[in-house]
Amino acid sequence: MPAQHEVDEARIRQQVDKIVEGIRGKDLKALEQVYAADVVSFDIEPPLQHVGIAAKLKNWTNVFTLFREVSYEVRDLKLTVGTDVAYGHCFGRLSGTLGDGTATSGTWVRATFGFRKIDDDWLIAHDQASVPIDMLSGKGVADLEP
Question: In 10 A of CB 113, how many CB atoms?
Fold first, then answer.
């Protein structure tokens, strides 16, 4: 029988898989199931923070409005799992076909997740997506690949 740590890590990886599936399916109900009600998100679009599940789902609604077809890819997911908190980081790329029919290969971002074990479910309590900044120009560098 696997150790509890291994079980928890597998369950967290399943939650990340649910995010990918929810995005690909434009399924807000599925996405809602992976976030804590009081999630704090430092997303790539303003403002500096989005607080609560409604704000997080609004971000995904904006994405789904922009894209006719959308995909999400996760690369190099690393997790550190404790008894009731965990964190992870990876690279993520949102891509697909925009509403006007333009295909986009997307931009790789750095993604960080903070999980809390709530009622035996691992839910995202915090997430952050970012791109590096060119210090001289002050602009994001969005053409890097992992």
Answer: 22
Residue 46, amino acid: P
* Sequence-separated (6 or more) residues with CB below 8 Å from residue 13: 77, 79
Return the residue matching tokens 């809390």: 116
Q: Indicate the pTM of the whole model.
A: 0.93
Instruction: Kindly list the structural domains of the chain, giving each domain's residue range(s) and its CATH number in brackets, ordered by start.
Output: 4-130 (3.10.450.50)
* Cα–Cα distance, 140 to 135 (Å, whole number): 9
Report pLDDT digits (tens) over 114-137: 999 999 999 999 999 999 999 999
- Look at residue 1 in the predicted model and tell me its pLDDT: 67
Beta strands in the chain, from DSSP E residues, in sequence order: 35-42, 50-51, 67-81, 85-98, 103-118, 121-130
CA 2 to chain centre: 27
Report the Cα 19 to chain-centroid distance in Å. 7
Closest by alpha carbon to 141, among 104, 95, 109, 105?
Answer: 109
φ, ψ of residue 13 to 5 degrees: the values are -60, -35
